[in-house]
Amino acid sequence: MERIKSMVGQKIAIYNNEQKVLLLKRWPQSIVSWVWDLPGWWILLNETPLECLEREIMEETWLHITWIQPIYTYAKTYADWTHAFFIGYKWILDSSLEVILSDEHDAYVRIDPKDIDMYKLTEYRAETVKRSMK
After folding, report:
1. pTM of the model
2. Which one of 19, 55, 72, 85 is most buried, counting C-beta atoms within 10 A?
């Protein structure tokens, strides 16, 4: 019997005080097909969801989260039968905090969340932003 492969990923819509959401631009040599992204990624073995978000957000933006609100879940089965479960979150930060990008990204923007469809994101990333507006 084949082993089931499962992963849990997390993405977070980070808002500033002007109600703009943070998008990170993937560097051009990235192997992924989308260009824009939200902070976050896969939960590592023996890591809690909050530890994962703290680690990923710190690695990607140098921001430190204090409180998050889960807003969305999404499940997907890939062609190799890997099962993935994603959790979307919302967080509002002090707009005076500076974003410092990791080498995974080469730019960032803060956008009106109503304009999310103008940016190339995967379905669940875009849906996280759309649901974060409610």
Report:
1. 0.85
2. 72
